Amino acid sequence: MTRENRTLSVVFFTILMDLIGFGIIIPISPFFAESLGATPAAITLLGAGYSLMQFLFAPFWGRLSDRVGRRPVILSSIVIATVGYVLFAYSESFAMLFLARILSGFGTANFGAAQAIIADSTPPEHRAKGMGILGAAFGLGFTLGPAVGGILGQWGMRVPILTAATLSALNFCLAYLLLPETRAASGVVVPSEVRSPLRQILALAREANLRRLLVLLFVYSTAFSMMEQVMALFVEWTWVGAPVSHPTESAGRASMMTAWAMIVVGITAIIVQGGLIGKLVKRYGEKSLLIAGCVMVGIAFLAIPFCGYTGYGSFLGVMVLLAGGSGILTPSASSLLSRATAADEQGHIMGVGQSLSALGRVFGPAVAGLLFEQGIGLPFVVGGVMILACAFLGRDFQAVDRH
């Protein structure tokens, strides 16, 4: 096995373990918040707070990984995520739950560093395939995690969360033993050198080509996060019923149905990002896949509200279309951003890109709950229109390579 393949394998398993733990709590977290008296608008604000921390700290983690190395950043973030899970499990009020999500958001703002490891370890022509490795880890994590979470949720909502904390601790051990350093440390961070995320985004946006891609990432992230935050509630209100007279039993059923939807998404993502993305990029190029992905996801969003009339099976079918579109869009956008960036700025730019995506995940959840309370299909319609608009932004992007 080559050094490149060995590094990619270790990163894959490290991110996989992290995402399985994260995926475990997806089917039960909205219902855990409901058990503490949260409304749909308040539940989606949990996601907004989580993403706000990612927006604020993704450039910090990315720049720090450029300075001190990728490995210490990944290890530190795993420890913080573990503490966040434990606090989440033992929350007895919505305020404590919110604090736990903020802490987790800070710890998991490290995806730019993970992307930088891929960028460090792959040549430009293999970059999209390398980014697809992370996508495959996401897909498998979102397949196994929600499945485990949905099953364990039948024995109580704290059981999946404590399982996630345990897996996160094991993940630290795995990363500590096997994760290599792909970039030599270049010094310590000087606080005055770390600019605010907004200033960094504005600085990058001066270049017209990058500006198009950054706007696309923001709009797409905003719309996609609207769907993520209300999907479990849509499943509950459409096929289980809300409000419910037996919240524990209802939460178990709704979490299992949500888990099945996430399993479908995960399997599709594994197939697309783990096996097809490299071939598709060679044949069509990242830009074409970026546009096609936007169209597929946008259509899927618009179809979700009609699943309330056609049945849960059709909803799972729409999830295949959604995951397929996202599976070709996400690594293509990451690859285009990476190839437009100088080699010594990979961690920084990837961090800024993740920060901008996180900013979208602040705005999306902040309005998703309010839209959901006006009509349970409204967040999907608004999000679908926004993502279809991204396809027009992608048409004007000019693929460049600064390596």
Structural account:
- The protein has 16 helices and no strands.
- It has 403 residues and is an all-alpha fold.
- The protein has one domain: Up-down Bundle (Growth Hormone, Chain: A).
- It is globular and about 50 Å long.
- The two termini are 25 Å apart.
- The model is unreliable at 185-194 (pLDDT under 50).
Structure described in brief:
This protein is mainly alpha-helical. Helices cover 81% and strands 0% of the residues.
Radius of gyration, rounded? 20 Å
Give a short account of the largest sheet: none
Number of strands: 0
Looking at the structure, the CATH topology is Growth Hormone, Chain: A
Q: What is the percentage of strand-forming residues? A: under 5%
The number of helical segments is 16
Please report the distance between the alpha carbons of the first and last residues.
Answer: 25 Å
CATH architecture: Up-down Bundle
Element pattern in H and E: HHHHHHHHHHHHHHHH
CATH superfamily: MFS general substrate transporter like domains
CATH domain class: Mainly Alpha
Q: Could you say which overall geometry the principal axes of the C-alpha atoms support?
A: globular
Number of domains: 1
The percent range for helix content is: over 70%
Structural class: mainly alpha
The parts where pLDDT drops under 50 for at least 5 residues are 185-194
Average pLDDT value? Answer: 81
